[in-house]
Amino acid sequence: MRPYNIEVQINKNLFKARNLDAIYKQLKTKSFQLENKGNASIQQLLNHEAWVRLFAVLEPLISRQVGKIKAHQELLSNVLNLPLKSDMANIAQLVVDTQEKIDALEEQLWPLSDVRQQTILNEKINKIEAELGDIREMLAKVVHSLNEGKDMKNGAE
What we know:
By secondary structure, this protein is mainly α. It is built from 4 helices and no strands.
């Protein structure tokens, strides 16, 4: 296949119906087909030295055309509201930055959590110590009354 015979056919009725999902799916399918055809053509052409020399001469023109294609791709993606590779890269960077900030906040929260747990433990310990103090007082009263009862019994004998 010769590179100038590559054709891309897109159903124009899809644009009239404004079914963007179908447009995107067809555009994606056609772009994969075009890429595969282009790669096959390039592989065939690389086997011929004359073509390699020709492409070396045409490289600046091809570079400009690739730039124009990228510009048109950006325009089309804006119209169809499709993300570009740069958009995806920006989103990925934002996700990484957000995760790093979350990790930093977690590291700051751990000591606060430890302090809170220690405070709760101290409150429980103080409550238990107060209850133990009440129990000691009650035991002291019981022992005292038992001793008084013992003394009365010894005094009565």
